[in-house]
């Protein structure tokens, strides 16, 4: 088999065959070492000005999943049977990490100090000019990118996922001792080994969803 064919097959396995799973094999566990590897790879997703606003809460203990299940009425099966549920938040105060991000970029040789200083000056001015709703839009977009990448990385590790929005967003941060004014919920992502194959879904053809100009 040629490398090109192998890459195509790998792509199909990871992307085209990905399905949302409702029930997982509860005997399958994911080590925190492997979960850390998955999150590190997912965190390579792009973000505006490389601000990386996403924050992850990994719920993998029985106690944690029971607490989460009480907040996810319509997704309790996924929560209880999955190896873990990753709650994706964005950090309203992520601008606090701007100096660290660009300082490390210089330290690692990714950019020169003059470029760093110019970007920081422009970026800080830009962020200060944003209204709360505009900042919310930026952070939600970036957090959506990392969430999709996380699901694809999980698939490459041999795991199945299911993104979920059906939970009590106004309560989840406080339930896990997070500052709800700072950490805003984006979605839940269950992860594990599917107990059975998810059902296929119909996708609109490209001719319907695409306009050429």
Structure, explained:
With 213 residues, this protein is α+β, with helices and mostly antiparallel strands. It has 9 helices and 4 strands; from the N terminus they run H-H-E-H-H-E-H-H-H-E-H-E-H. It has a 4-stranded antiparallel sheet with strand order 1-2-4-3, with helices on both faces. Helix 2 (32-42) packs across helix 7 (132-156) and helix 5 packs antiparallel against helix 6. It starts with a helix and ends with a helix. The model has no long low-confidence stretch (mean pLDDT 93).
Question: Could you provide a short overview of the structure?
Answer:
The protein is of the alpha+beta class and 213 residues long. The chain is 48% helix and 14% strand.
Entry keywords:
4-stranded antiparallel β-sheet, 213 residues, alpha+beta, 9 helices
Instruction: Tell me the structural class.
Output: alpha+beta
User: Radius of gyration in whole Å, from Cα?
Assistant: 19 Å
Which stretches are low in confidence, meaning pLDDT under 50 for 5 or more residues running? none
Topology, number of strands: 4
**Beta-strand proportion:** 5-15%
Count helical runs: 9
Write down the secondary-structure element order.
HHEHHEHHHEHEH
Proportion of helical residues: 40-55%
Instruction: Estimate the mean pLDDT confidence.
Output: 93
Oligomeric form = single chain
Widest β-sheet, arrangement of strands: 1-2-4-3
First-residue to last-residue Cα separation: 39 Å
How many strands, what sense, and barrel or not for the largest sheet?
4 strands, antiparallel
Envelope shape: globular
């Amino acid at each position: 088999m040629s490398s090109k064919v192998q890459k195509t097959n790998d792509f199909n396995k990871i992307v085209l065959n990905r399905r949302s799973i409702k029930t997982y094999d509860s005997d399958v566990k994911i080590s925190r070492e492997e979960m850390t590897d998955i999150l590190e790879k997912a965190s390579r997703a792009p973000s505006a000005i490389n601000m990386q606003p996403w924050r992850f809460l990994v719920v993998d203990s029985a106690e944690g999943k029971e607490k989460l299940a009480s907040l996810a009425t319509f997704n309790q099966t996924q929560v209880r049977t999955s190896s873990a549920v990753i709650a994706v938040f964005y950090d309203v105060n992520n601008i606090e990490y701007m100096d660290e991000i660009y300082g490390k970029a210089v330290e690692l040789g990714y950019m020169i100090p003059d470029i760093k200083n110019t970007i920081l000056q422009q970026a800080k001015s830009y962020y200060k000019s944003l209204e709360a709703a505009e900042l919310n839009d930026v952070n939600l977009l970036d957090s959506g990118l990392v969430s999709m990448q996380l699901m694809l990385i999980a698939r490459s590790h041999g795991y199945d996922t299911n993104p979920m929005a059906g939970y009590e967003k106004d309560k989840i941060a406080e339930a896990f001792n997070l500052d709800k004014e700072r950490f805003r919920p984006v979605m839940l992502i269950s992860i594990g080994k599917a107990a059975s194959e998810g059902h296929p879904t119909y996708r609109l053809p490209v001719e319907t969803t695409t306009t050429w100009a």
